Amino acid sequence: MASASERSYTRRDTVMFSVCLALSLVALFSPSAWGLGLAASLRQTVLAPLVWLQVQAEEGRTSRERLRAITVERDSAAYLAQGLPSLLAENERLRQVLGLSKRLSSPYVAAEVLHQAQATDGRTLLLSAGSRQGVAAFDPVIAPDGLIGVVLNTAARTSIVMTWAHPEFRVSAFTVNGNAAGVVAPSSTGEGALEFRGVPYRDSVPVGTLVLSSGLGGVYPKGIPVGTVTGVVKEQAGWERVYRLQPSANPGSAAHVLILVAPSGDVSRAFPSDSALNAQRLDSLERVRRADSVAQAAQAAKAERAESLAARRDTARARTRAAARPDSVKARPDSAARRAAGDSAR
Fold it and tell me: Which of 25, 164, 211, 229 has the fewest other C-beta atoms within 10 Å?
């Protein structure tokens, strides 16, 4: 037989079941307004912690999604910002090449510098124009800054260029003022510079002078900037001087070049008109020296100002000391009067 406690549990369960059944029937057949009000009251009282947890979980999920979206946008913006300077530089180079092509009077072929994965990348270049575009061997290659090199051999759609860094590169050149002439060749020290060789010892070339191609030999036309004199490499007394040149054009940074198909005449007008003026001006080294002299003068003026301020302070201190001395001077006559009175008393 079941005990009294088991019977009470059974009755309690029955009562609770009946109550729940009645409440469910009431909720089922009651108006919708009653149900909505009851649900709202339950959410505000009993289910308030659960509702708060649900809101926090939803906010966390949306925050993570927003953070992910913001991170993606930031990364894309940073990637675009990193590529923007290169795009601006490329556009500037293209504008310079376009301006050079407009100023040229001789026929030319525009070409793009392609990637060449070889050990001689710094000495030769691979261009995107070949024999089908009319390019042939020994055609000079120029950039907006100056001479790049000469075409070695061509294929149907490509060509290989020997730059001025190649050991076999030579070009006959002269100074912009016409005072000296010689041959430009790569530096024997391998410093990425050029040498202006064969200049007579009596013809001195000042630093900052622009050196142009002379047109002798029939390969390079006259007037292409080759480099700027930066100093003397060596000299033989009574015979010749060898000058160091800073190249005008850098093959490593060239992306688009022009190939002169039938070079002839003087092409110096195609390059910036102020090249002669720039050649006669002081080069960057002398400008640095001038800036250093200005800085030294400023430092000297500052030192003089500091010395004058120190002198003023010393004079001010001396004046304060002199202003304080009359009291002691006044005190001295009193002591002298006392001594005189003592002597008279004696």
Answer: 25
For residues 7-36, average pLDDT? 78
Helix residue spans in the chain (DSSP H): 4-29, 32-44, 48-103, 275-280, 284-345
Topology adopted by domain 108-287: Thrombin, subunit H (2.40.10)
In this predicted structure, what is the pLDDT of residue 226?
93
Kindly tell me if the per-residue pLDDT of 225 is higher than 80. Answer: yes
Question: Letter for the amino acid at 325?
Answer: R
Closest CA to 160 of 124, 186, 136, 113: 124
| Residue given tokens 């376009």 in the structure block | 98
Looking at the predicted structure, is the pLDDT value of residue 79 above 90? no
Structure tokens given for 140? 């000079």
pTM of the model: 0.57
**For the purposes of burial, counting CB atoms within 10 Å of the CB of 215, is it exposed (0-12), middle (13-18) or buried (19 or more)?**
buried
Task: Tell me what the mean pLDDT of segment 75-103 comes to.
Answer: 82
User: Reduced to 3 states, what is the DSSP secondary structure of residue 315?
Assistant: helix
- The closest of 178, 193, 173 to 233, measured between CA atoms, is 193
Instruction: Characterize 99-134 residue by residue with b for buried, 16 or more Cβ atoms within 10 angstroms of its Cβ, and e for exposed.
Output: ebeeebeeebbbbebeeeeeeeeebbbbbbbbeebe
Dump the DSSP string for 42-98: HHHTTTHHHHHHHHHHHHHHHHHHHHHHHHHHHHHHHHHHHHHHHHHHHHHHHHHHH
Cross-strand partners of 150: 140, 162
CB 112 within 8 A of CB 133: no
Q: Give how far the C-alpha of residue 78 lies from the chain's centroid of Cα atoms, to the nearest Å.
A: 16
Compute CA 40 distance to the chain's CA centroid, rounded to the nearest angstrom. 63
| pLDDT-derived band at 345, boundaries 50, 70, 90 | very low
Q: State the Cα–Cα distance between residues 10 and 79, nearest whole angstrom.
A: 73
Residue 151 to residues 60, 248, 258, 263, Cα–Cα distance (Å): 65, 19, 11, 13
